Protein 1
Amino acid sequence: GAGVSQTPSNKVTEKGKYVELRCDPISGHTALYWYRQSLGQGPEFLIYFQGTGAADDSGLPNDRFFAVRPEGSVSTLKIQRTERGDSAVYLCASSSEGGRTEAFFGQGTRLTVV
Amino acid sequence: AQRVTQPEKLLSVFKGAPVELKCNYSYSGSPELFWYVQYSRQRLQLLLRHISRESIKGFTADLNKGETSFHLKKPFAQEEDSAMYYCALRPGAQKLVFGQGTRLTINP
């Protein structure tokens, strides 16, 4: 089957606008992760879902960032009042159970705030 | 604090030469360590994990708790090994903590 799918692949938005980034995990995977990768850096953890609930949101940088996973499958990362510093590649990953199982990554959404 | 350090941002070796990508970690508990690889225009993918103790594409990595290191090694580099490599630590059961990555270039 298909791997983790993220849309859009690229997003350019103006400073101050609201954006939504979507992640379709591998079917049946209960664990879903969001990471952010700034230029020249490794991925940085944002939030982890187990099913519908956010089990760990300690990586969200501030209250402009929010993520949901209402039916335990697709997840949306929402960023309000975007800033130029939010420009990065946003990666989504999923795994079958969380815990010690392998996480599979999507191709990422490149967000550019101008 | 949980931290992964990859001291080399860039590493260039000739085809057939040995390769070692360095990774050091900081974690007070019992860590789970990984190497991830990203080939050009492809997504990030798992290369190997320390608990598997396996060799993938000729690469091996040994966890050295005394030196808090998890260096990635390959005895004879191949051109297709050129990629971005990330060392990662899983401190608990969930999130990954990544190093900043090493870009490996294999010269013909």
Protein 2
Amino acid sequence: EAAVTQSPRSKVAVTGGKVTLSCHQTNNHDYMYWYRQDTGHGLRLIHYSYVADSTEKGDIPDGYKASRPSQENFSLILELASLSQTAVYFCASSDVRGEQYFGPGTRLTVL
Amino acid sequence: TQTVSQSDAHVTVFEGDSVELRCNYSYGGSIYLSWYIQHHGRGLQFLLKYYSGNPVVQGVNGFEAEFSKSDSSFHLRKASVHWSDSAVYFCAGYQGGRALIFGTGTTVSVSP
């Protein structure tokens, strides 16, 4: 069974709208991450968290918020979606050994 | 903070051939390097990692990688590729908080 799940798997949003991407892990990992992937680029870190109720900014946090209400759940929130936020978003979790386990991704299209 | 670079955007090989994917890094503190594979439309999957000890590390499905401090490299190799190895391969380095910084990826196409 999948250890990291994401919902929705795809979404079309309107410019200026609010978007929430959800991630759930059953790995019992403390660390969770949100990345975005754009065509021709690797993954870039948006936010991460190493404990519930706490989040940290990654490399490209502008325009995004994150929420970690429990060890298992980590959400990414776009308060005012913009065209430039069209991308595939991946959630991942890891333990102290550092190996990251990725979800299947969410394809977000902002129109 | 480390940086990682992958110089080859696309590599084409025939089934049964060997392949080497290049990754170079810049030292930024702790050494932690890894490789991930992404099949089309899927999330990334961990292949192998290096942080200390034997510079040659073995991963899943016959992949191995060799760490070189002198060359600042962590190249991935496989002796005999299969069509199912067609994917995008990402090298990743450690950037603190257990977060990774990824290279831009190398697309491997395996021809029959």
